[in-house]
Amino acid sequence: MKCIKCNRIKQTSQVGPFPGPLCNSCFVKLIEKRVRKDVRVHKRLKPNSKIRVIDDGSQTAAVTIFLTKRIANEIRSEVIVDFDAECDILVIPWNLDQEVEMQLQKMFAKNPKECKKKEVKLLKTVSKEEILHFAKLKGFEGKKTKSYNKEIAELLLDLEKDHPEIKYSLLKSFEKLGLSL
């Protein structure tokens, strides 16, 4: 199969809501580009900062650490992977699936609690499936990230069968409503 981005015949895979297969190199570049855009648009990381990344041993954390270090290097910021270090910005291992599940749970709750965290969710535009594939390509090990809410996760899986881009659409809707930034 040919990669839809570079048109070369390489080992390709169909992961995520892309219109066709991507080679491993283009897949990694696309995920990194999506994360960088989210960081830039929402000003999640600032130059000359001390950035602490939480490492919970998950593949999501491994990908978060990898991408945070790459971005921080370019903006002259220091990255610390430690639970007790002083920092300006805290980056937590969090992905698209968890973000959508959390927002839906808050919407369905009888008494939704306002959640005003100062943490940065660097991978909230990247699905769990994409993180697993990225981690595999980069050779990162770790446990799989758990769902935020199992019932909502199952509901989303059912909806994804007919609507593969539903999580991305929901995230964009939450952002437009000011619920998820």
Explain how this protein is built.
The chain is mostly helical. It has a single domain, classed as HUPs (Rossmann fold, 3-Layer(aba) Sandwich), CATH 3.40.50. It contains six helices and five strands; from the N terminus they run ββαβαββαααα. The chain has helices spanning 24-42, 59-74, 96-108, 128-138, 150-162, 166-176, and strands at 12-13, 22-23, 50-53, 78-80, 89-91. The strands form two sheets. The protein has a three-stranded parallel beta sheet, covered by helices on one side. Strands 1-2 form a two-stranded antiparallel ribbon. The radius of gyration is 17 Å and the shape is globular. The N and C termini lie far apart (37 Å).
N- and C-termini, Cα separation? 37 Å
Total beta strand runs: 5
List the secondary-structure elements in sequence, H or E: EEHEHEEHHHH
Are there runs of 5+ residues with pLDDT below 50, and where? none
Strand content: 5-15%
CATH architecture call: 3-Layer(aba) Sandwich
Coarse structural class: mainly alpha
What helical percentage do the residues reach? 40-55%
CATH-wise, what's the superfamily?
A: HUPs
Number of continuous helical runs:
6
CATH topology: Rossmann fold
CATH class: Alpha Beta
**How many domains make up the 3D coordinates?**
1
**How big is the Rg?**
17 Å
Overall 3D form: globular
What strand order characterises the main sheet?
A: 4-3-5
- Which whole number gives the mean pLDDT? 86
Reported for the largest beta sheet, the result is: 3 strands, parallel
